[in-house]
Amino acid sequence: MTQPSSTFSAVNGDGYELQMGRWSRQLAGKFLDFTGLDDNGRILDAGCGTGSLSAELLSRTSRAEIFGVDISAEYIAYASARTVDSRASFDTGDLTSLDYREEMFDQVFSMLVLHFVPDTTSAVAELVRVTKPEGKVSATVWDSRGGFVHYRIFLDTAAMLDASAADLRNRTCTRPMTRPGELANAWKVAGLEDLHAGEVTIRTDFSSFEDYWAPFDGEDGSIPSYLRSISHDLRARIKDAVRLAYLDGENDGPRSYVATAWTISGRKQSGN
Q1: Looking at residue 4, what DSSP letter applies?
Q2: What is the domain range of residue 76?
Q3: Position 129 in a domain
Q4: Can you tell me the distance from the alpha carbon of 235 to that of 228, in angstroms, rounded to the nearest whole number?
Q5: pLDDT digit string, tens, across residues 61-110
Q6: CA gap 225, 216 in Å, rounded
Q7: How far apart, in whole angstroms, are the C-alpha atoms of residue 247 and residue 243?
Q8: Could you give the number of structural domains in the chain?
Q9: 48 burial type by CB count under 10 A (0-12 exposed, 13-18 middle, 19+ buried)
Q10: Which of 20, 65, 154, 256 lies 20 to 30 angstroms, CA to CA, from 43?
Q11: Which residues pair with 148 in a beta bridge?
């Protein structure tokens, strides 16, 4: 059986924006602060989703051409419709088999996607293949086990009530590239040099429990997919338990949680 190229449940752009877009927009700037950015040539946003990183790339450059690619046609349509800068273009594509010629891009960035690609070896090899010699290849993914607190609140609570939720927690915490050193090792194996590895942290802020819960009522992402698969009664029990975890003994209101992403940047040498 052919392995799927992505394990992320992508349904519509608005759903992704509710689920993750507000956090990816925050992360994009800090990601680029960490990696650095040159305003020249062609830049690939590999796994661009709804366009958060592409928008940040456009805001920080004046000459570079930005190419966004994502496996979801719905997300590509969303990004295209909301980007007016003629320097940017968006296309559907598979990170494990990119439809770009060798050494086409001066810089390649991938944000919040590699942990949803089962065949990460092929994906990283493709990112390197389409990068010019001396070009930079950079990526960032959530530390889903130790650094993505608002997801762990849901997963740890639901896992106590349902074995299927425990399975979801297991899959989430063991996704590719999400454990310490995995990104750096993948970059080394791919032959990239001058590695700069580290972490980037943002805050995920919510105004209330309903603000926290609203993305889970959508269709995009693993938690909404799980919630749609269970009974109404179990869903209600889980929501009540997660509400108690969110409240933490205080009245409903704002909460702020840490979200940390592993980050890597490396340079392709002439012999790669």
Answers
A1: P
A2: 13-267
A3: yes
A4: 8
A5: 999 999 999 999 999 999 999 999 999 999 999 999 999 999 999 999 99
A6: 9
A7: 6
A8: 1
A9: buried
A10: 20
A11: 259
